[in-house]
C-alpha cells in the first residue's frame, strides 16, 4: 500500500484528523501505543465518543485508506498528535512528543514534512528540529518542519476540523509553505501562515485568554457574594455596554485545555505571566470557595434544624451538556463535600453519565425532590426547568436557576 501520511497518537484529535485525511483519499497509517486503540480502529470502530466519527473511521478503514498500528512506517508526512500534559509541579511534559519523534527518526528522508499538532510550549518545534538534526545530520536543510495547533470543540470535531481557520507556522518559509499545501488538501477554513514559535504561542494564548476572562467573571462572583449583588444580573447589565463582553462565572475551570495550557506559559515565563498565573489561581480558588460554601450551608442548616441536611450535587462534567469529566472542578467540589459529609445523605447527579467509578449517581429529579440543600455546579439543560419548595436551600454556582 502506498502510505503517504503517518499520524502518531489516535485520541480525541489524532483519530478524527486521521479519518478526515483518509476520507480525502490519502493513505494514512495511524500509530498509537495502545494495542486496544489500534485493534478497535482496524475493526472499523472507535474508542472515543464523538458525533460522526464512527462513520468517518468505518469508511476510511473499509476503503483501505486508514490503517492503525503500534509502529510507524515510511511516509512523506508525519503528524505528531500525542498528549502534552504537565508534570506534578505544573511543568510541561513534552516527553510524549519526543518519544513520537524518536519513533520516526530512522524513517525520515529528504523532502519529508514533520508537523506537531500537540499543544506545546513555545520552542518545542525548534527543539525537535535540533533533536532530529543531531541524530540525522545529513537531513539538515532537507526536511520541512512545522507547528499547526488544533482548536476544535469536542462534540463538533468533524465539522470544525474542516471549517475552522488554522494557524500554520514552519521553522522557515519553505516549511510553512509545504505545511500550508498539506492542510489545503482537506481544510476549507482559512489557513494563516506564520512561524513555528508564533503558532505555538497562538494556541497557548487562545486558552490563556479564555482562562483569564473566566477568572474575571469568577472574581466578580466572589465580590458580588460579599456585596449581596446578583452576579448574573450584574454581568447581563454590564454587557449592555457596546464594548464590554464579560463571560459567565462558574464553579471553576476544567477540561484538558483551558485549565492546563496556561501553565505552559507560566512555567517558561514566570516573571512575565503574572496575570495568567493569577487567573489560574483565581479559577482554582473558585472551586475551593464553592466547596466551603456548601459546607457552611450544611452547618447553618444543622444549627437551625437540629439535624443533618441531605445534599444534592447537581452536575459533574467540566461544562454544560457534555459527559467529559476530565479536570472537572465539579468533581473536586463533590469530593471535598463528600469527604466532610459524615452520615448525611448525598445525592450526586450527572445526567450525561450512566455510571461513575467513585460516585453513586442519582436521577436529577429524584435528587432535587429529596435534598434539603441543592447545589448547582454545572448548567445542564435538564436543570433549567426544575422547581423547588420554599424550605430548600439552593446554592447556584453556575446561574442555571437565574431566570
Ligand atoms: N482534545 C481536544 O479537544 C484538544 C483540542 C486542541 C488541542 N489538543 C491537544 O492535542 C494533543 C492530543 O490530545 P488528545 O485529546 O487527542 O489526547 P488523547 O489522550 O485523546 O490521545 C492521545 C493518544 O496518543 C497515544 N500516545 C501517547 N504516546 C504515544 C506515542 N509515543 N506514540 C503513539 N501514540 C501515543 C495515546 O495512547 C492516546 O491514544 C494534546 O497536546 C492536546 O493538548 C486537544
Automatic annotation (TrEMBL):
Residues 312-403 form the UDP-glucose/GDP-mannose dehydrogenase C-terminal domain. Pfam families: UDPG_MGDP_dh (PF00984), UDPG_MGDP_dh_C (PF03720), UDPG_MGDP_dh_N (PF03721). It comes from the Bacteria. Keywords: NAD, Oxidoreductase. Signal peptide: none annotated. InterPro entries: 6-PGluconate_DH-like_C_sf, NAD(P)-bd_dom_sf, UDP-Glc/GDP-Man, UDP-Glc/GDP-Man_DH_C, UDP-Glc/GDP-Man_DH_C_sf, UDP-Glc/GDP-Man_DH_dimer, UDP-Glc/GDP-Man_DH_N, UDP_ManNAc/GlcNAc_DH. Belongs to the UDP-glucose/GDP-mannose dehydrogenase family. PANTHER family: UDP-N-ACETYL-D-MANNOSAMINE DEHYDROGENASE (PTHR43491:SF1). NCBIfam families: NDP-sugDHase, PRK11064.1. This is UDP-N-acetyl-D-mannosamine dehydrogenase. It comes from Sphingobacterium pedocola.
Amino acid at each position: 500500500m502506498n502510505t503517504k501520511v503517518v499520524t502518531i497518537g489516535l485520541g480525541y484529535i489524532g483519530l478524527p484528523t486521521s479519518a478526515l485525511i483518509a476520507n480525502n483519499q490519502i493513505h494514512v497509517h495511524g500509530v498509537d501505543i495502545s494495542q486496544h486503540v489500534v485493534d478497535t480502529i482496524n475493526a472499523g470502530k472507535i474508542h472515543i465518543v464523538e458525533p460522526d466519527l464512527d462513520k468517518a473511521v468505518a469508511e476510511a478503514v473499509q476503503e483501505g485508506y486508514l490503517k492503525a498500528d503500534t509502529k510507524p512506517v515510511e511516509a512523506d508526512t508525519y503528524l505528531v498528535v500525542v498528549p502534552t500534559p504537565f508534570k506534578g509541579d505544573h511543568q510541561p511534559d513534552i516527553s510524549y512528543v519526543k518519544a513520537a519523534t524518536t519513533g520516526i527518526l530512522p524513517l525520515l528522508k529528504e523532502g519529508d514534512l514533520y508537523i506537531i499538532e500537540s499543544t506545546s510550549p513555545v520552542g518545542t518545534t525548534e527543539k525537535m528540529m535540533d533533536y532530529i538534526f543531531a541524530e540525522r545530520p545529513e537531513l539538515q536543510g532537507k526536511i520541512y518542519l512545522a507547528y499547526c495547533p488544533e482548536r476544535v470543540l469536542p462534540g463538533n470535531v468533524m465539522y470544525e476540523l474542516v471549517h475552522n481557520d488554522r494557524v500554520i507556522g514552519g521553522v522557515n518559509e519553505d516549511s510553512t509553505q509545504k505545511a500550508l499545501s498539506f492542510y489545503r488538501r482537506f481544510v476549507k477554513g482559512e489557513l494563516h501562515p506564520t512561524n513555528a514559535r508564533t503558532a505555538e504561542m497562538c494556541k497557548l494564548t487562545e486558552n490563556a485568554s479564555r482562562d483569564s476572562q473566566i477568572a474575571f467573571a469568577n472574581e466578580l462572583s466572589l465580590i458580588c457574594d460579599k456585596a449581596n449583588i446578583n452576579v448574573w444580573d450584574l454581568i447581563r447589565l454590564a454587557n449592555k455596554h457596546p464594548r464590554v463582553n464579560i463571560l459567565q462565572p462558574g464553579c471553576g475551570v476544567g477540561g484538558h485545555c483551558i485549565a492546563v495550557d496556561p501553565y505552559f506559559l507560566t512555567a517558561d515565563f514566570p516573571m512575565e505571566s503574572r496575570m495568567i498565573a493569577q487567573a489560574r489561581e483565581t479559577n482554582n480558588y473558585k472551586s475551593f470557595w464553592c466547596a466551603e460554601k456548601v459546607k457552611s450551608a450544611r452547618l447553618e442548616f444543622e444549627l437551625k434544624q437540629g439535624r443533618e441536611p441531605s445534599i444534592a450535587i447537581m452536575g459533574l462534567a467540566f461544562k454544560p451538556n457534555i459527559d467529559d469529566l476530565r479536570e472537572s472542578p465539579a468533581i473536586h467540589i463533590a469530593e471535598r463535600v463528600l469527604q466532610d459529609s459524615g452520615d448525611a445523605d448525598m445525592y450526586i447527579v450527572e445526567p450525561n453519565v450512566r455510571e461513575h467509578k467513585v460516585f453513586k449517581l442519582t436521577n436529577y429529579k429524584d435528587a432535587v425532590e429529596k435534598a434539603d440543600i441543592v447545589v448547582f455546579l454545572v448548567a445542564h439543560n435538564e436543570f433549567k426547568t426544575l422547581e423547588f419548595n420554599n424550605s430548600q436551600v439552593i446554592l447556584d454556582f453556575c446561574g442555571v436557576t437565574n431566570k
